[in-house]
Design goal:
heterodimer, A: seven-stranded mixed beta sheet, globular, B: alpha/beta, two-stranded antiparallel ribbon
């Protein structure tokens, strides 16, 4: 009775507090944090924790970051640790890799991963392969981070998804966070990792707030690489996705739930290593697989997932061929109507699920 | 076995045996230099090639007098102390040599025009350079026998660069270079045995056979880099770490005349100068980038000026003392917090670009021969020491023989050591990582990687 009057007076939140008191249960404190702030806090904490960590990139210091991810860090840590670079990707990426070889722990920011193409030799040949070529004598503890994939109206040269390209190479770890919790945990893990990590953010996710548990706000909260997260349990179809498309899949799942189709949404989190076990376990439960990504179809992340499922035990559990939902196989156009139709939409995901389920 | 026989034949006959391999000829040529250089001709009677004889012993002198005080480099159990007929006190302990004045760019003055050399230093430099020379010639031989495969870029002719630089810096300083790296791998502390075994792809190689010729590493030596020019920003980054950590160390960042036009080098110059990084950029100008002469590749061949706002020096790279003095000058400049500096070392490679390049389609044999006879770095040093009575001819011969033995033993190891085990194929993909599964050639082939 007391709780009912509470609800009428001060809304749901107050009732939650009352419920907590009544049931003597301490629910985890939940805070709303945007992906941007989660990244910012993670970097701040890691900079504080280890003096060898530093950030370099274009506009990261005095401008507070092109996308404000490094806001406040220069003011706090100064010129020596937050370094503005000239617009010379190949040069500053090489410098970052060299600094990592000599014992520092750089975070090398690409304003977008499109520009990393100019420096890709340093990422692959100087960073990724070195520990192997040196038989373990020379490690490269570095994080390459920045926004990846399509944004909004930025045109073909600024919209490419690099998950497949970097995910192709041994010696690299490649992660693609979706939520604020992903961003925080994966970035902390990346900075603490002794190996080169490619950290693919998404510009359109930066401003999105997520609830973060107390556990995830802990100073030492890290998310292990190679472990996907089941964001939504389901029984009829497995949706495997990463980054922004996790949101799309969850939205599609909400629509389909009304029609009695329960989708299981698997947030990859890690592109390399890929968590095949979680995917297989899910497919063995649902018997249907749909992959969803923003990148181009040919030789993409979805293609790899399909191949792996074919090679493993889950193949025998498939009731239909796996389906890939991908970006359209064109360079990204500018006009809004064209751009919108170059990337997977929720209706495409729903359509693909229904086709796969034959409903 | 055959090699040993033909070596012996050469020594005995003092001439080039008809059935000799080209590499034997080259080895012969490097000894021939002794006879053709001006200073040595005066000592012609003592430098005739003869089978090794036990050195003459003065039976009247006491044993203590006979045994010369050699530094630890000769304390290898197999080496005997060199016995000379002259008493130790007869050698000049230290001498001063005039060295070529450096061309300077944006500097008031360059390194001094004089260099001091002690007897110990001289013997050490000789031994190191001769070891590199012999090691490279041995690699040539092994490559032609198809025991070394893939890429093999030899350093013979350029030894004064590696030795001069190492003589001017500390072991705690840092060095990074491109693919012509065997000399630096040696001066940075890797034994010949482990270099040759890496070339032959054995598990005893410095990179356990995983790297090969272009990917050898040691503490404070960052390879060995295969992508032309990529090592230059890396070197600037190592210098950034030195500055960041405030350890007063410098990074020597080497590249060739071929790489000197790479855009990323100019990007590295810019940031190094902007942030005053303690980076010594060194261009080893051996006049040819693969088959392209400097005139055909570069609008400006004044490589020491290419840093524009970065001060530069042009140095005689065939003179180990010039290289040493210039590098000292450069290191002082960096350690004083003045930022980066650029050095161009004018040097020469006797071999082609790599083992697949005979090296005579874009330059003449006469040119190569002229450099060998007039500017060989090892001969130059030896002549200086002999004409200043800093050492005896016998000591050099003894060192040569010890080095020959060391190289032979190393080559034996490199050819007899076993290849890396197959189950190590996937090791070291990552550092400090629990073992992980690696996909093999087929879905059923699940391999394991250990860090």
């Amino acid at each position: 009775m007391a709780s009912l009057s509470c609800v009428l007076r001060s809304g749901r939140n107050a009732a939650a507090v009352v419920l907590r008191r009544e049931f003597h249960r301490s629910a985890p404190a939940s805070v709303q944090v945007t992906v941007r702030d989660a990244l910012n806090q993670a970097m701040d904490e890691e900079l504080e924790r280890d003096e060898r960590v530093f950030l370099l990139g274009e506009e990261v210091a005095q401008y507070d970051g092109a996308y404000k991810i490094s806001r406040g860090l220069w003011k706090k840590y100064g010129d020596a640790r937050i370094i503005d670079t000239p617009i010379t990707e190949m040069g500053f990426t090489g410098i970052a890799v060299g600094a990592a070889m000599a014992g520092l722990r750089p975070i090398c920011e690409f304003m977008t991963f499109n520009f990393s193409m100019q420096a890709i030799d340093q990422v692959i040949n100087s960073a990724a392969k070195t520990n192997y070529m040196s038989a373990g004598r020379q490690s490269v503890p570095i994080v390459f981070r920045g926004p990846n994939g399509a944004s909004a109206g930025v045109g073909a040269q600024h919209s490419q998804c690099f998950a497949a390209w970097y995910g192709h190479c041994p010696g690299l770890k490649v992660v693609s966070p979706w939520s604020a919790e992903d961003a925080r945990g994966l970035l902390k893990a990346a900075i603490r990792d002794d190996n080169p990590v490619v950290f693919l953010e998404n510009e359109l996710m930066y401003g999105v707030p997520f609830e973060m548990s107390e556990e995830s706000l802990h100073k030492d909260f890290t998310i292990p690489f190679g472990k996907a997260k089941v964001e939504r349990q389901g029984t009829h179809v497995t949706l495997v996705t990463h980054s922004r498309y996790v949101s799309f899949c969850l939205d599609a799942a909400a629509v389909l739930a009304k029609e009695g189709v329960e989708c299981e949404v698997v947030n990859l989190r890690s592109i390399r290593p890929l968590d095949v076990e979680t995917i297989e376990a899910s497919v063995m439960k649902t018997n249907h697989l749909v992959t969803v990504e923003g990148g181009w179809p040919q030789f993409g992340v979805g293609a790899e997932i399909c191949a792996r499922v074919m090679e493993g035990p889950a193949f025998n559990y498939l009731d239909a061929p796996a389906t890939r939902v991908t970006g359209v196989d064109v360079p990204m156009p500018y006009a809004k109507i064209l751009e919108d139709n170059s990337l997977p939409q929720i209706k495409d995901i729903i359509f693909s699920i229904k086709k796969t389920l034959n409903i | 076995m055959l090699t040993a026989i033909s070596n012996a034949l050469c020594r005995i006959t003092g001439s080039n045996v008809g059935a000799q391999t080209v590499s034997e000829f080259l080895i012969g040529q490097s000894e021939l230099v002794n006879l053709t250089s001006p200073a040595a001709s005066a000592l012609a009677t003592t430098t005739q090639r003869q089978p090794p004889k036990p050195p003459p012993v003065n039976t009247k002198a006491s044993e203590a007098e006979l045994v010369t005080e050699q530094p630890t480099l000769l304390s290898d159990p197999g080496a005997r102390a060199v016995v000379s007929s002259r008493a130790f006190a007869d050698f000049t302990p230290k001498a001063s040599f005039e060295i070529k004045k450096c061309d300077v760019h944006r500097l008031e003055e360059g390194p001094p025009g004089q260099a001091e050399l002690t007897r110990e230093q001289g013997l050490h430099y000789y031994r190191t350079m001769q070891t590199i020379r012999r090691m490279e010639l041995k690699a040539d031989q092994l490559y032609k026998q198809k025991i070394i495969r893939g890429f093999c870029h030899l350093y013979d002719g350029q030894e004064a660069c590696a030795m001069g630089i190492e003589a001017a810096i500390n072991p705690t300083d840092h060095v990074i270079t491109a693919y012509r790296a065997h000399g630096y791998t040696y001066t940075r502390g890797v034994p010949v045995k482990q270099i040759l075994a890496e070339l032959t792809g054995r598990k005893g190689g410095i990179a356990k056979g995983k790297g090969g010729s272009m990917h050898m590493y040691a503490p404070n030596f960052y390879g060995g880099n295969g992508i032309v020019g990529a090592q230059v920003p890396l070197g600037a980054g190592i210098a950034l770490a030195c500055k960041y950590l405030g350890n007063n160390q410098v990074c020597v960042t080497l590249y060739g005349d071929g790489a000197a036009n790479q855009g990323q080098i100019f990007e590295a110059y810019n940031m190094a100068a902007l942030w005053k990084l303690p980076c010594i950029f060194i261009c080893e100008n051996n006049k040819y980038g693969m088959g392209t002469s400097v005139e055909r590749s570069s609008a400006s061949t004044d490589y020491y000026r290419r840093g524009d706002y970065i001060p530069g020096l042009r140095v005689d790279g065939m003179d180990v003392l010039s290289v040493r003095e210039a590098t000292k000058f450069a290191a002082d400049h960096c350690r004083a917090g003045k930022g980066p500096i650029l050095m161009e070392l004018q040097t020469y490679r006797y071999h082609g670009h790599s083992m697949s390049d005979p090296g005579v389609s874009y330059r003449t044999r006469e040119e190569i021969q002229e450099v060998r006879s007039k500017s060989d770095p090892i001969a130059m040093l030896k002549d200086r020491m002999l004409s200043n009575k800093m050492a005896a001819m016998e000591e050099f011969k003894e060192m040569d023989s010890e080095i020959r033995k060391e190289i032979e033993e190393a080559a034996l190891f490199a050819t007899s050591d076993s290849e890396p085990p197959l189950d190590a194929l996937c090791d070291h993909i990552f550092h400090n990582e629990p073992p992980l599964e690696v996909r093999g050639t087929t879905p059923w082939s699940k391999l394991k990687s250990s860090s």
